[in-house]
Design brief:
single chain; 323 residues; alpha+beta; 3 domains; 16 strands
C-alpha cells in the first residue's frame, strides 16, 4: 500500500490555508482535503488499471503545485500506529462513547473464527464473522443478514474459507473460486483483497488488514472480470446484495450500446449496468434509428448483439445472463 503524500498552501488574500493529500493504491486514488476553517472532505476515484491511476494521480499533483501548494512530510498514519493491535481488539475499543461494545464470540469447531451479532432481531440485523490470520493481526470478514442466516450453511462456507484464509492477501485483487460442494444455493466464492472488499473501510488503521469473502452464484461475477468491473458489481449502482444469503441469482449485466434517440449516452465499451437498464434499453431499441445497436455480455464473456429488428425478448436475454 502506497503512503499518503501531503501538500499544503499558505494563507493568501484570496484563499485560506489548506491541505490536500493523495494516495494511490492499485487502481484507486484516494483524496482528502480541508483547511483550518472548514471540515475535511474525502473522495475516491477508481480507474481502469494501475497505469491510468498513476497518470491520474500525477495530473492531480501537478494541478495542486500550479495552485501554490507545497509538498510537506505527512503526519503519522493511523495504520502505522495501530499495526500491532489485533483486529478484534481494535474493533472492540473503536466504538463511540454511547454505542454498545461489540462482543466477538468464538465459533465452535473452527480455529480463530469469531462471530458478532449486530441487532439480529432487527429487520436489518446481521451476523458478522472474522476468520483471523497472523495471530489476529489480519482477518477475512463476511456478514450474513439475519433473515437469511443458517448456522449449518455458514459452517459449510467456513470449512471452505478457513483453509484459504490467506488467498485474498496474495497480491491479486480478487479470486472467483468454484466451491467443492454447494453452500446453500451458491456454487462459487469470491475472495476480495482489502482494497476491493472494503471490509473495514470505516477504520483506516485496519483497512489494509481485513479482506472480504462471500459465496456467490456463478453468474454474478464474470469469469474474466478485471478489478474495476468487480468493484462496480459489489459497490456500484444496484450493488450485489452479497450479505443476503437467501437471495435469488443477481446476474452480471455488461452492456455497450449506441441507441438514438434515447436519454442514454452512448457507451462504446462494456460497463456494468443494472438489469433495469437492460430492460429500458430493449424497450427503446425497436423504435430507434436503424443504425442503433446494443451488445450484452454474459459472465462467461459471450456477447449477444441486438438491433432494432431483433426479435429476442427481455426474458430471452436475461436467460443468457444466468445460464
Amino acid at each position: 500500500m502506497t503512503g499518503w503524500r501531503r501538500f499544503e498552501r499558505q494563507e493568501t488574500q484570496d484563499a485560506a490555508p489548506g491541505y490536500w493529500e493523495i494516495r494511490q493504491e492499485g487502481i484507486r486514488c484516494f483524496l482528502r482535503w480541508g483547511s483550518d476553517r472548514t471540515p475535511g472532505r474525502a473522495s475516491t476515484t477508481i480507474l481502469d488499471d494501475e497505469q491510468q491511476a498513476g497518470r491520474h494521480a500525477a495530473r492531480k499533483i501537478n494541478d495542486r503545485l500550479r495552485k501554490g501548494y507545497t509538498e510537506v512530510e505527512p503526519p503519522c498514519d493511523p495504520a502505522d500506529a495501530e499495526a500491532g493491535t489485533p483486529v478484534l481488539e481494535f474493533l472492540t475499543r473503536a466504538v463511540g462513547p454511547y454505542a454498545p461494545v461489540p462482543e466477538f464470540l468464538p465459533v465452535d469447531g473452527f480455529d480463530q473464527v469469531f462471530r458478532c451479532a449486530r441487532t439480529p432481531d432487527h429487520p436489518n440485523g446481521f451476523f458478522e464473522y472474522y476468520v483471523l490470520r497472523e495471530q489476529g493481526l489480519g482477518a477475512v470478514r463476511f456478514a450474513v443478514r439475519a433473515a437469511g442466516h443458517q448456522d449449518a450453511v455458514v459452517a459449510e462456507f467456513l470449512e471452505f474459507l478457513c483453509s484459504r484464509r490467506d488467498l485474498a492477501f496474495d497480491g491479486r485483487s480478487h479470486h472467483k473460486v468454484p466451491l467443492p460442494r454447494p453452500v446453500g444455493p451458491f456454487d462459487h466464492a469470491l475472495f476480495c483483497s482489502p482494497a476491493l472488499g472494503r471490509g473495514c473501510a470505516a477504520y483506516p488503521a485496519l483497512a489494509a488488514r481485513v479482506a472480504t469473502a462471500f459465496p456467490v452464484f456463478d453468474c454474478e461475477i464474470g469469469d474474466e472480470d478485471p478489478e474495476v468491473l468487480v468493484d462496480a458489481r459489489i459497490h456500484g449502482r444496484a450493488p450485489l446484495p452479497y450479505s443476503d444469503w437467501g437471495r435469488s441469482p443477481y446476474p452480471a449485466v455488461d452492456l455497450r450500446f449506441d441507441i438514438q434517440p434515447s436519454f442514454y449516452r452512448p457507451s462504446p465499451k462494456f460497463k456494468a449496468q443494472r438489469t433495469a437498464d437492460l430492460r429500458k434499453l430493449m424497450e427503446i431499441l425497436p423504435t430507434a434509428s436503424p443504425r442503433s445497436w446494443l451488445e450484452v455480455r454474459s459472465f462467461r464473456g459471450e456477447t449477444t448483439r441486438l438491433q432494432p429488428g431483433t426479435t429476442m425478448s427481455f426474458p430471452d436475454v436475461l436467460s443468457l445472463l444466468t445460464d
